[in-house]
């Protein structure tokens, strides 16, 4: 998978590798200062972690794959970076809703990329995980609903969209197992955020959320770039 994405031999390999390494370095550096008070550096590192992935689909080797799916994937990364930016900003309670909206749009772009590649889950493991995700999303929503207030509709919509995204990832046989795993990690990250914000404080929330989120995004990025490259 890594060879397919980064070693195309088209003269752009070094740029793809540099952007990927910058993304990883930003993610590690952000985790190192995640518990510090908000600052320009903290916000910048969080935003850059996925922001540096945006050019990768645009640098994908030319071939039989239409440019549209690659452009949609770049937009998925871009809106994820916007989501990270809003969630990193403090001092305005509306930033959480803005971050939620940005990630919802990101998931819609992911869905647009993955649905044409998807079929019915072809393994018992994929079917089982899909069922668990669906039941888990329903249970999570109804456990949080009494605390959501005016955000009940927006959080419910977000849960539906991220669930569809994850189910689409699990339904792409060629992407197994890393694409599905990445989507599941993304769902876990967002679920921890939701429980911590609306229900009860979770110990080591920052570490759990960031590691599952970045690992999930990275696995999805590598898998989809390999499939589309």
Summarize the structure in words:
The termini are close together. The chain is built from 10 helices and no strands. Helix 5 runs antiparallel to helix 6.
Describe the secondary-structure layout.
Blueprint: H1 2-6, H2 13-33, H3 40-51, H4 55-58, H5 67-88, H6 94-114, H7 124-148, H8 152-170, H9 178-198, H10 205-228
Helix pairs in contact: 2-3, 3-5, 5-6, 6-8, 7-8, 7-9, 8-9, 9-10
Give a quick rundown of the structure.
By secondary structure, this protein is mainly α. Helices cover 76% and strands 0% of the residues. The longest helix has 25 residues, at 124-148.
The main β sheet shows up as:
none
User: How much helix is in the residues?
Assistant: over 70%
Could you say which overall geometry the principal axes of the C-alpha atoms support? Answer: globular
Strand content: under 5%
Low-pLDDT parts are: none
The whole-number mean of residue pLDDT values reads: 91
Q: How large is the count of helical segments?
A: 10
Q: Kindly, what is the distance between the CA atoms of the first and last residues, rounded to a whole number of angstroms?
A: 10 Å
Structural class: mainly alpha
Order of helices and strands: HHHHHHHHHH
How many β-strand runs? 0
Radius of gyration, in Å, reads: 17 Å
């Amino acid at each position: 998978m890594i060879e397919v994405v980064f070693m195309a031999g088209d003269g752009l390999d070094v740029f793809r590798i540099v952007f990927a390494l910058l993304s990883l370095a930003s993610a590690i550096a952000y985790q190192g200062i995640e518990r510090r008070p908000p600052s320009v550096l903290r916000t910048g590192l969080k935003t850059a972690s996925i922001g540096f992935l945006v050019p990768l689909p645009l640098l994908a080797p030319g071939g039989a794959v239409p440019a549209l799916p690659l452009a949609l994937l770049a937009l998925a990364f871009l809106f994820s970076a916007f989501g990270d930016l809003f969630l990193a900003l403090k001092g305005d309670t509306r930033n959480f809703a803005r971050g939620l909206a940005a990630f919802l749009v990101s998931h819609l772009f992911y869905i647009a990329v993955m649905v044409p590649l998807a079929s019915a889950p072809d393994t018992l493991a994929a079917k089982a995980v899909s069922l668990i995700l669906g039941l888990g999303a329903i249970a999570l929503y109804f456990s949080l609903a009494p605390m959501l207030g005016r955000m009940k509709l927006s959080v419910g919509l977000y849960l539906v969209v991220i669930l569809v995204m994850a189910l689409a990832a699990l339904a792409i046989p060629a992407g197994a197992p890393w694409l599905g795993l990445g989507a599941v990690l993304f769902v876990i990250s967002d679920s921890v955020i939701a429980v911590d914000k609306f229900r009860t404080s979770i110990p080591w929330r920052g570490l759990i959320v960031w590691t599952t989120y970045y690992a999930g995004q990275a696995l999805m990025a590598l898998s989809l770039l390999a499939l589309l490259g």
